[in-house]
Write the structure tokens for this entry.
Amino acid sequence: MKLLPSNLARKLRRWKKLRKSPLQRKLDLLHESARKRAFQHISADYVFEAQKEFADNTLTTLRVKQREPYLNNGSFHEAVGKVLLTAQCFAMMPVRGVTAKHPSRLSFSWRHVRTICCLIFLISTLCDLGLTIYKVVHGPINFNNIKPIIFKSSTLLVCLTALNLARNWPKLMLHWREIEQDLPEYHTQQQKCRMAHTINMIMLIGMMLSFAEHLLSMISAINYSFYCNATDDPVRNFFMLTNDHIFYVFNYAAPLAIWAKLQNVYATFIWNYMNIFVMVVSVGLASIFRQLNENLRIFKGMHLPPSYWSERRIQYRNICTLCGKMDTAISLITMVSFSNNLYFICVQLLRSLNPMPSVAHAVYFYFSLSYLIGRTLAVSLYAASVHDESRRSLRFLRLVPKDAWCPEAKRFAEEISSDLVALSGMKFFYLTRKLVLSVAGTIVTYELVLIQFHEDQDLWDCEASGNS
Amino acid sequence: MKLLPSNLARKLRRWKKLRKSPLQRKLDLLHESARKRAFQHISADYVFEAQKEFADNTLTTLRVKQREPYLNNGSFHEAVGKVLLTAQCFAMMPVRGVTAKHPSRLSFSWRHVRTICCLIFLISTLCDLGLTIYKVVHGPINFNNIKPIIFKSSTLLVCLTALNLARNWPKLMLHWREIEQDLPEYHTQQQKCRMAHTINMIMLIGMMLSFAEHLLSMISAINYSFYCNATDDPVRNFFMLTNDHIFYVFNYAAPLAIWAKLQNVYATFIWNYMNIFVMVVSVGLASIFRQLNENLRIFKGMHLPPSYWSERRIQYRNICTLCGKMDTAISLITMVSFSNNLYFICVQLLRSLNPMPSVAHAVYFYFSLSYLIGRTLAVSLYAASVHDESRRSLRFLRLVPKDAWCPEAKRFAEEISSDLVALSGMKFFYLTRKLVLSVAGTIVTYELVLIQFHEDQDLWDCEASGNS
Amino acid sequence: MKLLPSNLARKLRRWKKLRKSPLQRKLDLLHESARKRAFQHISADYVFEAQKEFADNTLTTLRVKQREPYLNNGSFHEAVGKVLLTAQCFAMMPVRGVTAKHPSRLSFSWRHVRTICCLIFLISTLCDLGLTIYKVVHGPINFNNIKPIIFKSSTLLVCLTALNLARNWPKLMLHWREIEQDLPEYHTQQQKCRMAHTINMIMLIGMMLSFAEHLLSMISAINYSFYCNATDDPVRNFFMLTNDHIFYVFNYAAPLAIWAKLQNVYATFIWNYMNIFVMVVSVGLASIFRQLNENLRIFKGMHLPPSYWSERRIQYRNICTLCGKMDTAISLITMVSFSNNLYFICVQLLRSLNPMPSVAHAVYFYFSLSYLIGRTLAVSLYAASVHDESRRSLRFLRLVPKDAWCPEAKRFAEEISSDLVALSGMKFFYLTRKLVLSVAGTIVTYELVLIQFHEDQDLWDCEASGNS
Amino acid sequence: MKLLPSNLARKLRRWKKLRKSPLQRKLDLLHESARKRAFQHISADYVFEAQKEFADNTLTTLRVKQREPYLNNGSFHEAVGKVLLTAQCFAMMPVRGVTAKHPSRLSFSWRHVRTICCLIFLISTLCDLGLTIYKVVHGPINFNNIKPIIFKSSTLLVCLTALNLARNWPKLMLHWREIEQDLPEYHTQQQKCRMAHTINMIMLIGMMLSFAEHLLSMISAINYSFYCNATDDPVRNFFMLTNDHIFYVFNYAAPLAIWAKLQNVYATFIWNYMNIFVMVVSVGLASIFRQLNENLRIFKGMHLPPSYWSERRIQYRNICTLCGKMDTAISLITMVSFSNNLYFICVQLLRSLNPMPSVAHAVYFYFSLSYLIGRTLAVSLYAASVHDESRRSLRFLRLVPKDAWCPEAKRFAEEISSDLVALSGMKFFYLTRKLVLSVAGTIVTYELVLIQFHEDQDLWDCEASGNS
């Protein structure tokens, strides 16, 4: 075999030109010139925008205070403010300045009132957990009965992790802001607001659903307490049913009952909040990857200088580093959230095979099961979106034309295709779409096995605790 | 350590020449010259074909109308025409111009009669599904009893997805045609017709088998209705048995029975069609990858200019993009098709352990089970062939000789080996041969568990619905 | 950040030299010169060997006949000769010239007596299978009862595949020989004989164990036939027990019994042989990879010209292509062998939980189970060795020094690390060490489930067939 | 599409400079100069350290003996000395010179007293195992009853592997020391001591826990022997209960009982020690990877000459080679340790469902189960840390600036990202964090299945052996 003889090669090349009909060639020329114009337009736009932005920046840097306070600057810190504020109402994340414009105003102190509230709640939860364990070990231990222990200990664990996270939060947010500012900015206010909007919607819907679930749970418990009326006082019956671990040790007393109810409300909030928190952080991380991808998309298929790719690569690398830092900070919460969801789904499925004692129970049960499955799916998919967005950059690198293909673009492409950027559960598993399938498969298998070998167990007797 | 001394290296090289005996060397020379001639022959062929084609193209572009209408141009649009036309007879894919020569004639309109038919069918299915759910929730809910719900809701889902797909179909087909025309063309009519032939065979065999299955199902139901004769009228018995969800609510009426039968025929068609559709699209995608690979195969191991690789890489990239677009468009159908197949196989296996009430049932049962397994295998393997074909290009890149190895070839090879090109089920799983094994493994495991702990359940009583 | 100032860099470099003590430096020099000498020695050796070999080759090419017939040339064709000859005694692989010195003497013809024998056996097996199916469908169908069908149909399938393989065998062996001759040759007769030795040992041990297993099976069946004596004639009892599928249809007749016994012996041989065959091919493929690796190992860490890597890469590529061809040719046999082994292990484990009717049965049972597990492990590990050897080349490429790192070496390394070279079961699974673990895991899980939910089933009654 | 017009590109570049405000630019300049100074500082430090080290080395090489004996030189050999010494007290790892300063003083001899002790213990274990097997095959064989066989045979296997390892230990340690000395050294004594400290803590905690477990096991057995008192002598009762396999064959005799107790203590030690040993080797390997990463971390993001990367790459490669050698040497121990842990956890979980005969048993049971799970987790995580550390180098390579990106850095990055460096169980599985999850998943699934289909089996009767 020899190289193509040069004259043949030349002919081939000429033929390739000729292959297209004159008409087509003309169309091509028209097309090409249109393309050029479009590119110049974009470039001009870009320069114009850049100059405007430069002017903006100059102003911004010097006169931040004068800036319009009602304009969203698209930062994660700002978007997540309300989410953290809500958490603080329930004794979590005791960090100051969450609603400030700039993350530099964030601070953590052990002496702050929020921190003290949080510590008090931790001690209170510890007592509650102790009583629960005491109750459980005095009965038969099985998959269903340890539910309150799992529920309360994960609440405690998340609270502790959140406390630790609060200490690092100011530093993390400053780092995040730095990386955000380094990224190519969005040009429209709408694009900037998108992340904040998504986060707010998640918070709102998540809170509403969890509130509905708690209400239904209470109605079902009230209903149930009538059915197993131990005493004449319906309020007392209700509290004795839902807090049997306390009145197993102590005699009934109103203050104890109120404390228990409060404790239960707080724990339920935190149990729901940890899922919301994982979603919110995922949305934040996915959104900065999207911001980068948006820029890559605009310049898709164009001839760009190596410096462009070098800059983007460094930005991408920075986001990956941030992703790693956030993952380290929240991966315990992620893990607790995931294992909790799995455990509660399995327990509910186990119960699903038993006849319901009342319609209220049936409604609550199916709502609760759907809520659990929906929540698990939502957490999984939002968390997986970080991985999806991080891979999407590769698509634009595949379209780099031959002449613009430079070592920096190559390095960028290789780094994306060989690294795995995703949130993880303590690095034991990575949250990708594949995980969702394997989790779903596990649950379905478990359900099938349950159905196949089902023998009626009476899980709905008056002794069993009816909480959450 | 030093480099091989130059004189030693020279000796080595000379020795390598001498290593072969004079006879062998002569043979080699002969062989080499034969090879050269072959290559010149191919090149000449190629140039000749190219010139011919160029001439053809020139003519074609200017005088499309004059072209022989009975010549298949090997496009997917043309091959898939009849498949879509059949679907339209059953209220799916309401898009106009499916049998036109060029995809530019495709159009979708909400006001078109096909679209309206489709919408009517959707509403009718919705009613049917509602009645079915009403019936099911009034009995015990288990793996076997929810079968009609799964069947009808997936029909509805596929119909809706197909409606949405119909809206995008003209654009997709134009894009597909563009990419097809850019590819190196086949030289023989036979190669061009291959895809159309495969698609027609799939359609024909698929439809025949599904018709046979439906017939058997009816015979088995008729047989069964004699056995459980509720009334004296055999026709009435049959309809009351197969449409028990309707006559659970309404009294028996002939028009209702006819509507139910029609609904059932349509639903059965769609339930079969979704598998055929996934296969057809897979064949189409695999076939354009094969067209590219065919070209790579012809020039296998030759010294080719970088521009050759650059061109092929861009074509490969375009096909990948198309693959991604098609996947996004049909992945819901793929998912429904897969999960349906799995569910129905599991239900049938569950039934397989019970004694059959009649010979007709036994024949129907084993035919139906084989049909289901065969269909699932066929869908999986055809879908996996897209992935297989996309990887096959790599084999030819591995054979590029040392001197012709250029950055473009390298980039091409790296892109193929690091990307995963395959149809997917909503990106949760990718349809590769590996998936087939894991699916088979799951089914076998399920069957083993079933066999091991089997207790007779009477699934064949007169109350159980006998549909599909 | 700037580049290291040049003077600093120079200092660093000088320091690196100085870092070592004078003594060490002297030692280094000594070491280096020793190394050089070693390399020159090897190179000289190589050239010498090459010249000798060249001389040999010249002679060989011209006077093949005069060569010493007792010298093993290390080719796979020669090593596998006896294995194929044995197979031909049992109506498999009807190809002529398997014991010839050169694969060019191999030929296949439909009219040859071996082919006719093979076809007769196929028809005979078909009859046997038909009778077996007839017997089985007239009883309850379960995991245990379909054992004879699985056994006989896989025999038939393997026979058919082997017949097809025989047609392609001459071409495959010629290709193999070509690639082998192109590889760097071994220098010692011992290395050359190694593969042939391994293949012979596998054949010998495999055949002996399968013979022992068959003997034990017969003893156990004889023992059993005394216990369930239907008639007075012990020979008749034995045949009626082991061939119940024949005497379920026909009356007892001596010729039928002899035919059945012969059929059984042949089927048992083939059932064992397919595993041996997969092992033998694996050993052959692994051995040519090892031959290449041996050469890479000798030149490990040396400065070699790019042409060295280019040559090795092409040889590696050729072996991969051969591997692919062999895999396509035998993958059906591999698949049948694997699934058979898995199925029979599971059936035996299922039986293991039942009390044995006699000591002979117990001995046979535990020997048979160990044999099955050992055989499965051996097939898996030998097949996995192809993959292991194909990856081992990478280790030597990692040690290429900085200056000798060339594009060809890079390409070689990338190709090895991104390709998966292994035998497969119809491309559904690849035979690697990982597979062994997952198969073992599956079997253990199955056994655990069996143990946990064991209810005595009487699998050892007189009705159950006691064959193989 | 064209390249960016040069003037536009120039403008863009200028704009990028101008984009930052004058203030920011000034800050940047300040920052940059600070950075430069820092780098020069580090470089100066490095040169200084290097010169110091060079002086040290010169001294060291010539006068090793004069060096301060109380200074830890951070070598693995030194750190592991006490661990091996402890093992030698229990007849394992009979190699001399484990506490010497330099690995060159290590030696193995078959005639050494330690080796002879080891061989005597092996024979003694063999007898014990024989008696155990004899006892077990005379009863029903099931998952629970084969526990003593598994326990003793794995002890034997580990002992044999350790004996073989002892023969290679001197060579391995010399190789390890060589690689360690080649690595960039730590500057503080604290960093040097870290590995030794970790190893000591593992040894201490591991031994204490295993001692506590053994004590509890004895207390539980004593307690139990009172309950099932076969004779009047409590000591005799205890020995007859814990060594039932011996007194099943022989009559009771005090020397036999003492031998059995001794044997049991030794076996228990070895059963615990194998886990500790795997952990210790993992810590050693992870620590040399960490030493390399520490150096990469210091120079993170700086402009470094290609020679830096080349040197680091070779060091990394050496560590990988060492890792491979150590893995080959200990992978049988790793495998035995892993499978043992899994088996014992499953057996304990099986027992967990039965009511405990006494409180002592309950305490022992839950302590033992927690200990087993904790130990398995610890082994898995320490072993996985080798893999984690080996991947961490990649993170620093991702931060190499554009101008300092050289072929050597590229080769380094590609090698890390494509190779899998980890301890393995006979290459069947690799010890990574992912494995931990799949193991946990398997155990949880097993437990769920157990719970779901639990039927009381009386595993706590007087006949069942209560050992370990």
User: Anything to note?
Assistant: The two ends of chain B are 76 Å apart (CA to CA).
